[in-house]
Amino acid sequence: MAELADQAVIRRASRSDATDPHALPALSDVAAGQWRALAKRAIEANGYYQPEWELAVNASARGRTGAAALGAVNDSGQLIGLLPVVPMQRVYRIPLPALVAAEPYGTLCTPLLDRDAAEDAATGLLRQARISGAHALIVRTMSLEGPAMTAIEAALARDGLRPRVLHAWQRATLDATRDADDLLREALGAKKLKELRRQRYRLADHGAVRFAVARTPREVASALETFLALEAGGWKGRRGTALGQHAGDAAFIRRATSALAETGSCEIVTLHAGETPLAGGIVVRHQDRAFFFKIGIDERFAKFSPGAQLTLDLTRHLCADPAIASVDSTATPGHPMIDPIWRGRFAIGDVLIPLRRRDPLFAAIHAAVIMHRLAYDAARGTVHAIRNRRRKSS
Questions:
Q1: CA-CA distances (angstroms) from residue 1 to 8, 29, 91, 363, 389?
Q2: 233-239 average pLDDT score
Q3: Which of 105-109, 234-238, 388-392 has the lowest mean pLDDT?
Q4: What is the value of pTM for the model shown?
Q5: C-alpha–C-alpha distance, residues 331 and 344, integer Å
Q6: Residues near 250 by Cβ (< 8 Å), separated by ≥ 6?
Q7: Residue pLDDT, tens place only, 194-218
Q8: Which of 257, 336, 275, 270 has the alpha carbon at shortest distance from 309?
Q9: Cα separations (Å) of 10 from 7, 16, 361?
Q10: What are the beta bridge partners of residue 348?
């Protein structure tokens, strides 16, 4: 690491090092029909890079607007690859010539590659990045062992290059092809399931417990407002990070869920006791995969585990759906609620992709990303320590 840092300061970075933000088309200029068709043909599902979702993010979500389009087309002009990107300077505050996959609010940046031409699509994306002036491409929160990564590795190998995994972790996933009750018994065991059933019986004291699924645009719009209220009433609201607390974020999620509901690609699930909503979650669908975007709970009922209760019902709901084969939790590593329930895991990571052989600037970009993460981890540790002290003193 010290060697990387030394290489990074051989020459001071300047604004001239940054990629030209005008060298790539704006994401909003991509033909929606071509994008939608590519999403249907993608070799690996990513619900958060569907046009209905990502264009809504790009239009108004805080800190996530104004992305460019890294695209690849075949000889007939058909779109075969797409990755929304922003300059490195915007994400890392370092003016080096690299592009970063645009974060779509859903912690998955796997690019869309045509299943019938995945390697050519990856080659086209890399070529377009070079033309823009970039010396590296940073894809954060990417699936590391799926066919998209395999295609990128093959495209890089053509030029004698290899990607570098900067950070990797395992994320909870649900094998929705299995029987839900069998899966839950294996994951939680008889004792834990008995305790959850006891809590559910206690919830019934507040009214009949029911699990509702909103699917139509009208149903989704109504259920979304319930979800936003639940999220804002909990710890996210106290920290100021709830979607409904910021006009741009609220506009994004209303637009995205409405547009996806039009194509049957979004559901909002809610657990009620009588007329009282206890927990809600947003589920995005893409191909045979679902993505559990966010969850909100009424913390007044925390002792009854409303988040876990909702997830149990969601597990049964998705396992009963023949159209869904797997579900990405899109959760942080070691999530205390979802990890014990969904015991499947798949590899996610941040990947640094070189674009030129023997490129001295690549080492500087690599070192800058590593040092940025070290600083981020240190700051995050400090914040957690402060919060822990506050909790203990309150």
A1: 11, 40, 21, 11, 32
A2: 93
A3: 388-392
A4: 0.91
A5: 13
A6: 228, 243, 244
A7: 999 999 999 999 999 999 999 999 9
A8: 270
A9: 5, 16, 10
A10: 143, 169
Q: Which residues contact 350 (CB under 8 A, 6 or more apart)?
A: 138, 139, 140, 141, 142, 165, 166, 167, 168, 369
For the CA atoms of the chain, what is the radius of gyration?
22
Return d(Cα 184, Cα 189) in angstroms, integer: 7
Phi, psi dihedrals of residue 211, rounded to the nearest 5°: -110, 120
Instruction: Find out whether 245 and 233 touch, Cβ atoms under 8 Å.
Output: no
- The residue assigned the tokens 């200029």 is 29
Other CB atoms closer than 10 Å to residue 267's CB: what's the count?
24
